[in-house]
Amino acid sequence: MAVRVQSAAFDPGAELAGFAPGRQDIGAVVSFTGVVRDTHGDLDHMLIEHYPGMTETAIEAIADQAVARWALVDVLVIHRYGALAPGAPIMMVATAAGHRAEAFAAADFLMDYLKSRAPFWKKEVTGSGAEWVAAKETDEQALKRW
Questions:
Q1: End-to-end CA distance of the chain
Q2: Average pLDDT by consecutive 10-residue portion of the chain (146 residues)?
Q3: Hey, where are the domains in the chain?
Q4: Concatenated DSSP letters for 33-57?
Q5: Helix (H) or strand (E) segment spanning residue 105
Q6: Class of domain 2-17+26-143
């Protein structure tokens, strides 16, 4: 299991290629990469802040829950912080399991957690100002599934 909170860019393809190498007990690998979305066409960048140490510990705890709940063979979570341009990868989740149902469910669970509970604060910066991104009711509803 690996959890990385970093400012540096990452290559999702390279990360996936290096995920769970040489394992023969895996029947499924599921990955998801989130990118910075420019909803209104005027986003300069997304500023993501976090508390070092606290953030990693919180994500590791939820990843441990996913491993226990779905008998995962491996988990990778990467989440960036700092100023991110539109279209830049912001986060990635990869899960490996003996069967696809476990890999898909665990990846979905981890993504819902990252979206609504991981301790990150996001601010959209445009040419006309900056605004903190508020929690969405749809994200809260998605989390209730688990």
A1: 21
A2: 98 96 94 95 97 96 97 97 98 97 98 93 95 87 86
A3: 2-17+26-143
A4: EEE---SSS-EEEEEEEE-TTHHHH
A5: helix 100-116
A6: alpha beta
